[in-house]
Amino acid sequence: MKDVTAGVYKGLEGIKVYPTIGNHDTYPQDVIGMSIPKENEAINQWSPTWNVFINDKDQMDLFSDWGYYSLPLTNIAGE
């Protein structure tokens, strides 16, 4: 995941990326049960790599706790 994230970040430099994680994006699948904050191994492994995209501390904390976040959708041209 670290290598893929770094490749996307470098390859799409200057373009806003909004990564998402789904229940079937892990192996074994269906391990994204979010009942206790910061207790999901898949999220714990992914969240440190996604801080380059989720550059808001509150939203990064939300993702680390529950596996989702919210950021404003912005035009890549800055309009």
Any idea what the shape is? globular
Which structural class matches the secondary elements?
Answer: mainly alpha
Taking the alpha carbons of the first and last residues, their distance comes to 31 Å
Provide the helix percentage. Answer: 25-40%
Taken together, the total number of domains comes to 1
Radius of gyration: 13 Å
User: Helical stretch count?
Assistant: 3
Average pLDDT: 85
Order of helices and strands: HHH
**Unreliable runs, pLDDT <50, ≥5 residues?**
none
- Per DSSP E runs of 2 or more residues, the count of β-strands stands at 0
Description of the molecule:
The protein is an all-alpha fold and 79 residues long. It has one domain. Helices cover 38% and strands 0% of the residues. It contains 3 helices and no strands. Helix 2 runs antiparallel to helix 3. It starts with a helix and ends in a 13-residue tail after the last helix.
Jot down its keywords.
single chain, mainly alpha, 79 residues, 3 helices
Secondary-structure blueprint:
Layout: H1 2-11, H2 41-50, H3 57-66
Summed up:
With about 80 residues, this protein is an all-alpha fold. The chain contains 3 helices and no strands. The mean pLDDT is about 85.
